[in-house]
Amino acid sequence: MKRKEENLKFRLMVVNKLRLLKKVYSYAELSKKLNKPETVLCRYIKGDVTPSESVAQSLWSLMNRNISFSSILKSLLRYDEYGYVDLTPIIQDPYVLTQASSEAMTRFAGKRITKVVTAAVNGIPLTTAVALALEAPIVIAKATKDIGVKEFIEESYPAGSPVSLTTLYVPKRSLTAKDDVLIVDDMIRTGRTVQALINITRKAKARLVGVFTLLAFGDEWRKLLSGIPCPVEVVLSLPSTASPAF
């Protein structure tokens, strides 16, 4: 039974990726890239039929070989009249989030991860998708203390524009020395929020496995995070001039 469930889950994952690609490419373009008739791809994408296991494996291999996730993200980005990136098409799209979770699993394959940590609010959808894929609990660092919780791990850092002091709070029981932590955020600009989450992880004496983000703007963040003893995995890097103004 478990084998059948895993098989179906994989086939549906392939269909979801096809649906994501359809947001960027026409059926004719997909047909050329994946060596499948347009009519067949259309039936998969519309849900009329599910590809067999062998076909799904072939499609998955071709999609990963011919179309990078970073190129998909770049095609989906929208810019306002001032040249700033609009992240809405990405962080609210279930197919993007599903593919992002697969990307995180691939990049941290073989690593023990017991908690996925993020800061409220924009990173929560991505973190939820990644945590579900990893089957690991989510820990959300908030700017306010939860009612009913007595003890917190807290970290203050400069953030925002204009810059002001922000404090993040995590219930003390949420992170322990037994945890292996993956930090997830939708984007990195200055690196200050990620550094604050790293400091919270250290205060809990948990082990930092890595950092995963969809977008990184400029290089300022690299200086701040250069000394951390784990990989910082970025799907797509963009110039600092495209950073959202908030």
Give a structural overview.
This protein is α/β, with parallel strands linked by helices. It folds into two domains: 2-67; 79-242, Rossmann fold. 43% of the residues lie in helices and 23% in strands. The chain contains ten helices and nine strands. It has helices at 2-22, 27-34, 38-46, 53-66, 69-76, 88-91, 94-107, 124-134, 192-203, 220-225, and strands at 78-79, 85-86, 115-119, 138-141, 152-159, 164-171, 180-188, 207-217, 232-238. A five-stranded parallel sheet has the order 4-3-7-8-9, sandwiched between helices. A two-stranded antiparallel ribbon has the order 1-2. A two-stranded antiparallel sheet has the order 5-6. Helix 1 packs across helix 3, helix 2 crosses helix 3 and helix 7 (94-107) crosses helix 8 (124-134). It is globular and about 55 Å long. The model has no long low-confidence stretch (mean pLDDT 93).
